[in-house]
Design a protein that fits this description.
It is a single chain. This protein is of the alpha+beta class and about 160 residues long. About 50% of the residues lie in helices and about 10% in strands. α2 runs antiparallel to α3 and α6 runs parallel beside α7. FE2/S2 (inorganic) cluster binds next to α5.
């Protein structure tokens, strides 16, 4: 880790130094400052708070709220609720994977999309549904999903 980042992370976590029970609070603070908790920052938090690195990794993995990678420019929320599941959300997810090279909880290598799974977007009549930022896209199939994603990519170029 570069020394500057290490110093910053130590500063963010300082209020929780030597308090293992405050690990989650320390991680919240770091994520609110950096936007995510990269592996190097996880190590710094472990040291300052006084817990094993494996425990920090366990928390990051368990709570979907925490991110170990940067957030993309657009947030893609794919509905995995019952109505969407029944109408082919898994095929939409497969199309997303094929088009972006990432799955749930990940950010595309071009930094354009972070993909998340959600339980219901309140648009069950349009299932399967995804949202990109504030825009709702319904009645998706793999072809249309890929076309939508390509549209965002073209706009970004
Ligand atoms: S189940 Fe997908 S929008 Fe409600």
């Amino acid at each position: 880790m570069n020394a500057d980042l290490e110093t910053r992370v130590a500063e963010f976590a300082k209020a929780y130094a030597g308090q293992p029970s405050e690990l989650i609070q320390a991680l919240h603070r770091v994520q609110s400052e950096l936007g995510y908790v990269p592996p190097a920052a996880q190590a710094a938090v472990a040291r300052v708070v006084g817990v094993p690195l494996s425990q920090v990794r366990g928390v990051i993995t368990f709570y979907h709220y925490f991110r170990a990678t940067p957030v993309g420019r657009h947030t893609l929320r794919l509905c995995l609720g019952t109505a969407c599941h029944v109408r082919g959300a898994d095929q939409v997810l497969k199309a997303i994977r094929e088009e972006l090279g990432v799955g749930l909880g990940e950010t595309s290598s071009d930094g354009l999309f972070t993909v998340e799974g959600v339980r219901c977007l309140g648009a069950c009549g349009l299932a399967p549904v995804m949202m990109i930022d504030e825009e709702v896209y319904g009645k998706l199939d793999p072809k249309r999903t890929k076309r939508i994603l390509r549209g965002y990519r073209e706009k970004a170029e």
